[in-house]
Amino acid sequence: MRAILLAAGYGSRLLPLTLSLPKCLVTINGQPLLGIWLERLSKANMGPFLVNTHYLSEQVDLFIASSPYRDRVRLINEKELQGTAGTLIANLDFFNNDEGLLIHADNYCMADLKAFQAAHHKRPKECLLTMMTFRTLNPSSCGVVELDERGVVTAFHEKVEFPPGNLANGAIYILSRELLNMLAKELKTVKDFSTEVLSQLIGRIYSYETTAIFLDIGTPETYKIANTMINRKDDLATKRP
User: Fold this and answer.
1) Could you tell me the residue ranges of all domains in the chain?
2) Is pLDDT of 235 > 50?
């Protein structure tokens, strides 16, 4: 399964670390985050990959050129950021008319990717994509979802003060062929995947909940957690922010 990894952001919440380093190359236990993603996806027999770049893109270019995945990665430099949906729509041809992954590559995720793919293949027939979800101890900082008894999304609550639960959108998706065709024909001008695509698909999104380690490393606090707690034997599924 092919995958688009969104890696073009500025990482402004991680300043000053990202003054001289793109967010996708910050290290977790010495390994760049983008490299962790490419390694784990490859081990799950997924790929090839498309990675979009913008901020400090030359560093990403050099990293990929020296990585073992260089022959499986297509780099797309965006002179102007296109938005999460804009990047996807501009590169729909990359999927070769098949389903594929869309990944916000600023998360540290140890989920079972094969199980995620298997869940997608068993989704209710009306669902156009499968969203990875996780439990968070800080739901007001996340996009929280509500589900029906089948695991289908019935509501989103984006960073509200008192959301009705702690099941959060992990911003990792498997997209069906039908959805990709819809994006090409009906939604080709949208820019943001969360607000302009997901909002139109309530009742047609299947949820796969991972209990593995899942950390948004977007802030200095969570980045520190990733680097100081990742090897502990504690169940981080109950400790992550």
Assistant:
1) 2-238
2) no
2-238 folds as: Spore Coat Polysaccharide Biosynthesis Protein SpsA; Chain A (3.90.550)
Query: Are the C-beta atoms of residues 124 and 206 closer than 8 Å to each other?
Result: yes
The predicted pLDDT at position 239 comes to 42
pTM (two decimals): 0.91
> Which tens digit of pLDDT belongs to each residue from 170-198?
999 999 999 999 999 999 999 999 999 99
**Beta strand 143-147 with 107-109: parallel, antiparallel or unpaired?**
unpaired
